[in-house]
Amino acid sequence: MFRGIMSDVLRSNTISLRRFRSHLLASLVAGTVAGGCLSAAMPARADDSGVIRPDTQIQQLPNFVNLVKQVKPAVVSITARIKDPDMSEEGGGGGMPGGFPFPFPFQMMPQQGHQTVEARGSGFIISADGYVVTNNHVVKGASKVTVTLDDGTALPARIVGRDSKTDIALLKVTPSGKLRFIELGDSDRVEPGEWVVAVGNPYGLGGTVTAGIVSARGRDIGDGPYDSFIQVDAPINRGNSGGPLFTQDGKVVGVNTAILSPSGGSIGIGFAIPSDTVKNVVDQLEKTGHVTRGYLGVTAQAITPSMASALGMKPSASGAPATGALVASVSAGSPAEKAGLKAGDVVTALNGQSIDNPHTLAVKVASIVPGTKTTVSYLRNNKPQTASITIASLGKGGTADSTVGDAPHDADKGPRLGVTLAPLTPDLRQQLGLEDGVRGVVVSDVQPGSPAEQAGIHAGDVIQAVGEVPVENPRATVSAIRQALQANHSVLLRVVRNGQSVFVAVSPNTDDGDAAPGDDDDQ
């Protein structure tokens, strides 16, 4: 379970994750000051007596003194007064009596009844006239917010807008003069192994500086639909939420937001919202007070090696497996449908940026301003195609472009696919709750241990197509499967399951037995 982390705070944001279920994730921002020196091993020499006398070279670690002096005046501490916190808002997490989330992330359990509590976090100034960036969970539900500058000046702040899906909030203070501020950098240029510095307000200790390296990029921790965090090993703790993550050129490349921790303290696994995401969200919050996200109109799924084989996709020049987002379905009237995208297409790039999986596609589409023309690169029948698509707006009732899950793994061996097929009769259509427009063949039974079962085919699935060939009766399905086996090592089936269209790749041996067509056909 993940946990929000503000310093000396009396509230937080509870997040349940698909992964790290046994851990606690906390919002954060701080790090650990890098210093000391590192010895680089050199070839050792031995004298006539055989004694080894190492020849070493001392290498100094980066010195962040000048960087910190210049950026520290733009880093602020934030205090939010929260009365009767309401955790019912989206992103609030599970509940305890009184509306507080569990587990409560601070050193004090909530009390029943009406009361006012203080939550402390971090933030940073992005304009001379007083706009401040922080985390949504730092100010969520606040009746009063105070921003304390590096010199100790306390200013009342107004919440301009909040976005729970990315955990970003924009505040505005009214200073007596121009404020010193810092710029958002390009998070796409950040590389694992690069030194970064975090400044924040852990445990109320404003102005705390810590340092570390970027551990990874594009982390999906299950916090939200648009997760793409920068992972860092800089020590960050409670109260660091909303604070900046700097590269050595003094640019902010991330907003420290969460940590993975079994105890609530830093163990060197922290997560920051990339600055590219922050730019998009903050720009919209400043203009309208809310965030509008792009909408393409596809449901996509990840490509397994078996799927790649069935689609005829080849590994890259480096030998890496084929990647992309396999379009499982296209929404009627969507930008994708208007541009001609179809189920079975594989999206490989968006505006020239590689798409490795459905989550990457969802994140990048959501970040595009509605109305923007976008170039989508995709494969159809393994041939490169491009389309110019005008991204639409994802409404409140809309469905985000997303993954429907990884396709199941395929069996290595098996004499048959192992399915029994039946026509889609009116009775079966009613039992399965299918609309009149759905066409296909119903899987009435799956043989235990068969390739179909191991690939995840279930009784009640409706096979709509074998590869690119639509099927509407058992005989045609068997024929299409046999033809597919002659051309590929895997059979790609388009299936309707629980009202959702997905692709499943099945890999039987080529010595599959014949099926005798009838009311129910085995294959």
Head-to-tail CA distance between termini: 44 Å
CATH architecture of one domain: Roll
The percentage of residues in β strands lies in 25-35%
Based on Cα principal axes, name the global outline: globular
CATH-assigned homologous superfamily of one domain:
PDZ domain
Q: Could you describe the largest sheet, including whether it forms a barrel?
A: 7 strands, mixed
CATH class annotation of one domain: Mainly Beta
Helix content: 10-25%
Low-pLDDT ranges: 1-41, 85-113, 396-415, 510-522
The DSSP helix count reads 9
Give Rg in angstroms: 28 Å
- Secondary structure class reads mainly beta
Question: Explain this structure to me?
Answer:
The protein is mainly beta and 523 residues long. Among the domains are: 194-288, Thrombin, subunit H (Beta Barrel); 294-393, PDZ domain (Pdz3 Domain, Roll), CATH 2.30.42; 419-506, Pdz3 Domain (Roll). It is built from nine helices and 35 strands. The strands form eight sheets. Strands 21, 22, 23, 24, 25, 26 and 28 form a seven-stranded mixed β-sheet that branches. Strands 29, 30, 31, 32, 33, 34 and 35 form a seven-stranded antiparallel β-sheet that branches. A hairpin with a 5-residue loop joins strand 5 and strand 6 (52-53). The chain is globular.
